[in-house]
Amino acid sequence: MYRIYLLLLLLSGSLSAVAQKYKVAGKVVDEKGDALPGASVVEKGTNNGTIADANGIYTLNVMYTNATLIVTFVGYNKIEREIDGKGTQNFTLENATLLNQVTVVGSRNMNRSSTDTPAPVDIINIQEITTKQGQLDVNQLLQFAAPSFNSNRQTGSDGADHVDPASLRGLGPDQTLVLINGKRRHQSSLVNIFGTRGRGNTGTDLNAIPAAAIERIEVLRDGAAAQYGSDAIAGVINIVLKENVNQLTANANAGIYAAKYRADGKAFDGLNYNANVNYGLKIAKRGFVNITADYNERAHTNRADTHDEEDVVRREYGDPKVRNMALYYNAMVPVFGNVQLYSFGGINKRKGDAYAWTRKVDDDRNIPSIYPNGFDPVIGSDIDDQAVTAGLRGVWKDWNIDASNTYGFNKFDFSVRNSLNRSLGPNSRTTFEAGGFQLGQNVSNLNFTRFYKAIFEGLNVAFGGEYRTERYKIFQGDRPSYYNYDLVHEGGAQGFPGFSPENKVDKKRSNVGAYIDLEADLTKKLMVDVAGRFENYSDFGNTVNGKVGFRYKLNDDYAIRGAVSTGFRAPSLAQKYFNSKFTNFVNGQAVEVLLAGNDTEVTNVLGIPKLRQETSQNASLGVTMKPSSALSVTVDGYYVKVKDRVVLTGQFSDEDKDIGNLLKSLRVSEAQFFTNALSSTTTYGVDIVVAHATALGNGRLNTTLAANLNKMELGAINTSSKLAGKEEQYFSERERYFVLASAPPSKINLTFDYTVDQLSFMLRAIRFGEVSLINWNYGEVKNATTGELYSPSDYTDVYRAKVQLDLTVNYKFSKNISVSVGGSNILNTYPDMHTPSLTESGGAWDPVQMGGNGAFFFTRVGFKF
Fold it and tell me: Which of 14, 31, 813, 831 is deepest in the core (most CB within 10 A)?
């Protein structure tokens, strides 16, 4: 037996020696000949690989004389090469990966890379970050990956609990334009009424697009309305769908929160799990179809056990339950010659359950025979989101021509359960269909581009036109969801009264636009871009905007870039026509509120003018630096001034001498409306990105520091002549603070990403700056005897700066299977606590900074075949 074992041992050693027989060595450099320390050299089809040392030198023993080496380095194109029996293999990598990739946004020149544009463009590799982050949806992935992007899950905010509002640089969710493969994406039909972010705004539901279908996301951090049209005040987010073929990828993800503040003592809650599959099929020689199926489910979290019972106004405070299913595709088929037929789009279905505020047993809105312990209404959502684009593109006499049509649709159905209609008495039903709203958008466009190599050092000419139609509807719920049957008690479904026939709306509008964009390399060092756009809206008229940008190359490693522009945003149809009656809570007390449409009896009596467009002035100036092949730095300062910003006003009481009688006749206690209340918002700040790569031991360390420093100032309040002197009521200091809190004044990401062989580690620290909000003590009497009001220290909730720490470990078991295990916010950090009955959301903290769920631990298994 011993001899057999010794023979097997010697044989295995001989086979191993044979397998490692061929030695390959060389150097990895960039285009200038500088060494690339930390470059990865891997034998294709195996786990055999090495890392270049500080001088770019590598040595690797391979199995075969015809082995193929794959050489990669962050910020550079990979190279695959068969060694063909040669032991010396040197590699020169081109600086042309995601950091230097041709982008859709920022420039219409198809030869222009992201580092050559006159405005900053972030390129976010979704496939890469999904293996290193526990987040499963696009909003949360970007929240923790891009400092200038901010999105917090809302709670106790009706519809906003189901569609996460998001923004760039602290501006409104509706001041960022979203594109899919360069085509305008439709907005959500939801207008945010409550919550800490985007109040009064309509944004785009990024979570309707599955992350598994996305190749990369391009974020243009600059005003671009002159190039792309309405909404592009803060910037443009372009989502590029996958095109890969002959490859099947699948992922299974699961994660759970550490439940620190649950009253029932459970240690964990909020189970998240996700499964997705992506497959690409080649069509003919150059065509493809890529399909993604995705399912995501998220359970409730509850963080209500933070204070004594008398201060708790919500027994269920946390994330809603969500079930999300999506099917997306991206396809292109050659038609004839160089003409291509392309199409992409998808369907997303989402069902959600979010808890409303608690009705305690002795609350007048409760019926003890139905709910002897009080009740927590559940607001349900059924969201249908669909989009499809089809087009033709090709080349005719050196002109690139692209004609396409995009249709998008978003429908939001509300339901209410675990509730009642108080006016129905003990026989009230407990479930209701509450109605909802929907938005349809159709966009047809025709674009021409041509590059003239012989003019200057190159001139790119682009022009085109666009025709867009929109249709917005509000549809009623079932009668018990909104009707008052006894005119004594409060009518409608508790938690979310349904839409009545009076609320029904069916409105349309159209607009036509035309643009021209000239981009010239005047010299080998200076590039200048000039763009102009005209648009005509059927509901408010014409607008003309322009942009001038430049990039000056000091040398091969340093450049200065900048731009100035004007922009605009047309008020959304939801802002113009949304109307409802709902219950608001002030100091934990219910108040009936009428939200009137813009052109109605209430607004006309008060002299409120029709909504008009927001206009903007943008300026940016930055520098890009590459001191060495391993280090790159970009610094970009920006300035954005928005005039006549549309907001949701404060609430006017039925005790007001000017509006009181009208409100009483409508049986509501208070009323509010949309108007161009803010004369201006001025935002300025700086974005900083520092990236460094180096060899460390036997591995490669990539370090990235990304920061956004941001400040906003608000101008005067625009009131009508009939409301002169009521500026505080029109748009109070409390509402102003919500606008200012759209982004923390600073957000800094420091990421260390270390890879050795098949093992990688990611450690990330995210610092969220201090945020302040005003609570419900504002304007209230503190001492009834003296009439003393609460002081700023009493009504200001300060959320001090906090740091979140994330850690992920990933191991590639083979070329087909990888596993990631990690945690987000592993130190279980929360925003500072405040009194739940005084906050906007009814919990110990409002949705700010890293959010209020605490530590999240996850695992992910990825398959690739």
Answer: 831
Closest by alpha carbon to 607, among 731, 718, 714, 735?
A: 718
Measured CA to CA, the distance from residue 268 to residue 265 in angstroms comes to 9
Which tokens in the block code for residue 311?
Answer: 């201060």
Tokens 């404060």, residue located: 650
Q: Count CA within 13 A, CB hemisphere, residue 194.
A: 24
What is the residue-wise DSSP string for 147-214? TTEEE---SSSGGGGTS--EEETT--GGGEEEEETTEEPPPPS----SSSS-TT-----GGGS-GGGE
Whose structure tokens read 């803010």?
678
Q: Look at residue 666 and give its three-state secondary structure.
A: coil
Beta strands, E only, 654-801 = 670-696, 699-714, 746-756, 759-768, 771-774, 781-783, 788-789, 796-799
Residues 518, 521, 527, 528, Cα dihedral to 10°: -30
Task: Tell whether the torsion through CA atoms of 308, 313, 315 and 316 is positive or negative.
Answer: negative
User: Radius of gyration of the chain from Cα atoms?
Assistant: 29
* pLDDT tens readout for residues 86-140: 889 999 987 654 444 445 555 555 444 455 678 888 888 888 888 888 888 999 9
Residue 337's pLDDT is: 86
Other beta carbons less than 10 A from residue 244's beta carbon: 15
- Predicted confidence (pLDDT) per residue in 493-516, tens digit: 999 999 999 999 999 999 999 999
| Cα separation, 356 vs 158, whole angstroms | 8
Confidence (pLDDT) at 97: 42
Backbone angles phi, psi at 332, to 5 degrees: -150, 135
- Supply the DSSP string of 772-837, one letter for each residue: EEE-TTTT-EEETTTTEEPPHHHHEEEE--EEEEEEEEEEESSSSEEEEEEEESTT---PPP--GG
Cβ neighbours, 10 Å, residue 520: 19
**Domains along the sequence of the chain with CATH:** 19-94 (2.60.40.1120), 99-864 (2.40.170.20)
Alpha-carbon distance of 723 to 721, in angstroms, equals 5
The total of other beta-carbon atoms located within 10 Å of residue 477's CB is 25
CB of 327 closer than 8 Å to CB of 346: yes
Residue count of the chain, please give it: 865
pLDDT digits (tens, 9 = 90+) for 580-633: 876 555 555 556 678 888 888 778 877 888 999 999 999 999 999 989 888 889
* Number of Cβ atoms within 10 Å of the Cβ of 796: 17
Beta strand segments in 203-286, E: 214-220, 235-241, 247-258, 268-283
**291 vs 724: CA distance, rounded Å:** 57
Cβ-proximal residues to 6 (8 Å cutoff; 6+ apart), any chain: none
Chain position carrying tokens 């890969």 = 244
Burial class (CB in 10 A: 0-12, 13-18, 19+), 575: buried
Q: Which helix (H) or strand (E) holds 8?
A: helix 2-19
Contact partners, residue 184, CB within 8 Å, separation at least 6: 177, 178, 228, 229, 406, 441, 443, 468
Q: Which two tokens stand for residue 190?
A: 């939801």
Which residues, given as ranges, of the chain have pLDDT below 70?
Answer: 1-21, 45-47, 74-75, 95-116, 582-592, 666-668
- In this prediction, residue 100 carries a pLDDT of 47
pLDDT for 475 = 97
pLDDT reported for residue 823: 96
Nearest CA to 410 out of 351, 347, 352 is that of 347
- Each residue of 125-158: b (16+ CB within 10 Å) or e? bbbebbbbbbbbbbbbbbbbbbbbbbbbbbbbbb
The CA distance from 184 to 445, in Å, is: 10
